[in-house]
Amino acid sequence: MREGDHVLDEGRQGEATVVAGPGAGARKLYLESYGCQMNFSDSEIVASILSDAGYQTTRDEDEADLVLLNTCAIRDNAEQRVRNRLVHFKGNKAKNPSLVVGVLGCMAERLREKLLEEEKLVDLVVGPDAYRDLPNLVDQVEGGQKAVNVLLSREETYAEISPVRLDSSGVTAFISIMRGCDNMCSFCVVPFTRGRERSRDPQSIVREAQELYDAGYREVTLLGQNVDSYKWNIDNKGVIKDETQPVVRFAELLEMVAAVNPGLRVRFSTSHPKDMTDDVLHAMSRHENICKYIHLPVQSGHSDVLKRMNRGYTREWYLDRIAAIRRIMPDCAISTDVITGFCGETEEEHQATLSLMDEVKYEMAFMFKYSERPKTLAERKFEDDVPEEVKGSRLQEVIARQMIHGKERTQALVGKVHRVLIEGTSKKRDDQFFGRTTHNTVVVFPKGDLQVGQYVNVKTFDCTPVTLMGEVTDQPAES
Ligand code: 5AD
Ligand code: SF4
User: Considering the chain, what is the average pLDDT of its residues?
Assistant: First the structure.
């Protein structure tokens, strides 16, 4: 799940999710997650570490001994939501003085002093690389002290920790393949909150995928801030670390995970246009079980804005990558992220974003108003000079354009037979299941005698702007 103000995909929304999973023990943990898929994946690592320390997760905040908020710092409104929740939990603490409240994730480093000292909202602040220390830190708080660990690491990947699958239907799961980010996009706080990029041992990734398959899961999403720069056994300068071992880049990793079982679908997020190679596209086209869907954030359609954003590509480069996708996988779905009103954005530059959207016709888009973040290059170098109303009206134009394209894309899938993995009961109708096509489009259809986790061919006959309606068929799938 990504943190999105304006997301045109009903299936993947979620501002904050309360998670509950298995575990044994007397003490109760209430965990709330905000932000991107990576944060949700991290919460599963946190639940695993605390389950080993005797905590059981609960969905009921009133019975919790420990409340943890896994926070997001990507835009100011994400932070505001967390602050409101912390004020709420301060109220719970007044009723139950032994309650421990902690902040995890991306706001931890930024706000530790403020949260602990000035506002006295929390007892515990733990950054994304320090979760192994959580049991000690909680003990420290129970011993009457405040506890903090926001150290970032160059090595931590939590490689051997088996995540506790939270809020899971038992069909789809996230696998984190790398952490941090070295890109330094000028708008982005992530390099400061999550530290340097590091990749996880490929064998531990394949093992996790195999274990998930054996446990009945049928889809994994490989997660990283920039999956295209995944690398193992080779450094940033291209020097091989151990000559006796293979080098694994993202294309190889994808194929290794796809080889776990043809019945295991593989997705990934997020790709970076400057690093996405044809190797990855060829790997995708070779394996039917690698889903034909790429999230390729453009951010802006104008090369001057892209330069100010320090994205490392131009409009032409980006469109060349789109052309490569269309050439190698003509039916691949593509989604994007767009920011409106970045520093100095002119009307002409904004129009270039709209015209790029017209050229690509994305299946889906996550669209945001620029929000200045502390410490970033943009905060230091540029003025946040586009008025709030202009940012807002440009965002509305971008959303309106995406609505048209998304609807067109969905309509083009009507009348076809799609291979669908059943994920669960439809939110709107109890007698219907929902699942996804390889293109990540949600399909609803009558349940019949089917089961969650099965693949079925569904012939579609109608759609809303983002969802297909259909029925199960014996006809062969066209996608
Ligand atoms: N303001 C607005 N949107 C942002 N994003 C990242 N940083 C900011 C910011 N400061 C958006 C980008 C990114 C997505 C995860 O969030 O579009 O791809
Ligand atoms: Fe995820 Fe970025 Fe938000 Fe951190 S700041 S939770 S990495 S979206």
Answer: 93
Give yes or no for residue 193 CB within 6 A of ligand 2: yes
Tell me the per-residue pLDDT of 414-425, one tens digit each, with 9 for 90 and over.
Answer: 999 999 999 999
Is 74's C-beta closer than 6 angstroms to any atom of ligand 1? yes
Say if residues 70 and 34 touch (Cβ distance below 8 Å).
Answer: yes
38 pocket-lining for ligand 2 (C-beta < 6 Å): yes
Tell me what pLDDT residue 1 has. 35
Beta strands 364-369 and 333-340 are parallel
Tens-digit pLDDT profile for residues 21-51 = 544 447 999 999 999 999 999 999 999 999 9
For residue 365, the ligand closest to its alpha carbon is 1
pLDDT greater than 50 at residue 406: yes
**CATH fit for domain 169-291, picks 3.40.50.1970, 3.40.50.10860, 3.30.750.210, 3.40.50.300:** 3.30.750.210
CATH 3.30.750.200 describes domain 325-412: yes
**169-291 and 417-472 in the same fold:** no
Residue 7 banded pLDDT, cuts 50, 70, 90? very low
> Domain coordinates of the chain in residue numbers?
27-149, 169-291, 325-412, 417-472
**pLDDT band at residue 402 using 50, 70 and 90 as cut-offs:** very high
pLDDT > 70: what percent of the chain?
95
Mutate which of 72, 176, 183, 366 for ligand 2 pocket (most atoms within 8 A of beta carbon): 72
Give this prediction's pTM: 0.93
Residue 117: exposure state from Cβ atoms within 10 A (0-12, 13-18, ≥19) = exposed
User: 179 C-alpha vs ligand 1 centroid, how far in Å?
Assistant: 17
Sorting pLDDT into bands at 50, 70 and 90, what band is 109?
confident
Residue 439, pLDDT above cutoff 60: yes
